Amino acid sequence: xxxxxxxxxxxxxxxxxxxxxxxxxxxxxxxxxxxxxxxxxxxxxxxxxxxxxxxxxxxxxxxxxxxxxxxxxxxxxxxxxxxxxxxxxxxxxxxxxxxxxxxxxxxxxxxxxxxxxxxxxxxxxxxxxxxxxxxxxxxxxxxxxxxxxxxxxxxxxxxxxxxxxxxxxxxxxxxxxxxxxxxxxxxxxxxxxxxxxxxxxxxxxxxxxxxxxxxxxxxxxxxxxxxxxxxxxxxxxxxxxxxxxxxxxxxx
Length: 252
Fold this sequence. Notes:
This protein has 252 residues and is of the alpha/beta class.
């Protein structure tokens, strides 16, 4: 296991993560990656293709940015951009809602077989034990996330789920909107004492734009280095060191 944390030397690395958690009043947790492997690293081009077929039925010819996108979630903000480039009387916004529903349908299917991320359940339980509130902040729809948490017996370990806005896909991370929603749900805590844990650079960007701290968790070494270079408060290869640090948290 490799980690990248502020400071140098073994002692700094071993103390930085516990100190980071000790100074945290609330945790925001990404879903796909830190909690489970939702799509099993399977490309979602077929989902994007279904969305494009639907959108052509409403709009006709699609912008090149939409046609060239082959990712189920990446295509959503591109549809939003296309809708706003044209006058409302020329392009109905119905495809935005329908695209969200198509992706959500696949997400409901995916959570049935999604593999839990090692130690995710224990980490959530340790946060709960210590009195540290957790909100899941995700570009996935909230419904499938809640289904997954219920299936894994984790629904009671989180304070809420803030998921994708069905009418405004451009509010997905890296936009700070979902982080702001989670902070409102938590009652407006001190942002400098809130920690977002995520596996994507877009999570880091959302955290920075919202004024909260960020801990990267990804097995991709290059991505960890990039996160560190972009100012992450830490970056680890797995939830192992985070869970060990959480076990040391006192009850609040």
